[in-house]
Write a structure and sequence with these properties.
mainly beta, Immunoglobulin-like, Mannose-Binding Protein A, Chain A, three-stranded mixed sheet, C-type_lectin-like/link_sf
Length: about 190
């Protein structure tokens, strides 16, 4: 398993979402019985992923969809190989509060897509497949990530003048008028 912002998730499917500043911890159950991260040396096959001596994995910049992390035992023996397959890469407009049309424009002008509400969070629980469910409260990440613990626009319409917004602090969903203000995040498939 990996520890992600207070929740353990399976290494078989995590992560499917990525962003600059994302991080998680490889848990000791990934290693040989009785061994911890301190018993291994870590390496990454890609420059956009950093792994420190404790097994903390950090995404440093825009990634590709496949990457391999290798944990080599310091005392010899078989290595542990963990493959990452990121399906969606996320960017955001930092602390800029904006109306819906500006959020759409921010995403499209940068070659990204404004997400559906279910891509921001498909359930109230943590799991795999959406930004919040995998990463939790986005405000807990480094300032490099740029996310806020607040409401984000989705491309999902509630009606002709309102859109669904999703809290990336709690996963709550609400409805805002298109001329109201929320934050913007966008994704692209890798």
């Amino acid at each position: 398993t990996v520890s992600v912002n207070g929740t353990d998730l399976p290494t078989t499917t995590f992560p499917s979402q990525g962003f600059t500043g994302a991080y998680y911890q490889l848990n000791n159950d990934n290693f040989a019985p009785g061994k911890t991260a301190a018993d291994y040396e870590f390496s990454s096959s890609a420059s956009w992923v950093d792994v420190d001596a404790t097994g903390k994995v950090t995404f440093k910049n825009v990634g590709s969809n496949w990457e391999r992390i290798t944990a080599t035992p310091k005392s010899g023996g078989p290595s542990y190989v963990y493959e990452i397959r990121v399906k969606s890469w996320w960017v955001n407009a930092g602390d800029a509060f904006m109306i819906y049309s500006l959020a759409e424009n921010f995403c499209s002008s940068n070659g990204y897509t404004l997400p559906r509400a279910d891509h921001l969070n498909h359930s109230r629980s943590r799991g795999i497949g959406s930004l919040y469910s995998e990463c939790g409260d986005m405000g807990h990440y480094t300032t490099d990530a740029g996310f806020q613990s607040n409401m984000y626009w989705s491309s999902s319409p509630a009606n002709s003048s309102e859109q669904y917004v999703v809290s990336l602090a709690t996963s709550d969903q609400s409805v805002f008028e298109k001329l109201g203000f929320a934050y913007a995040t966008c994704y692209k498939n890798l």
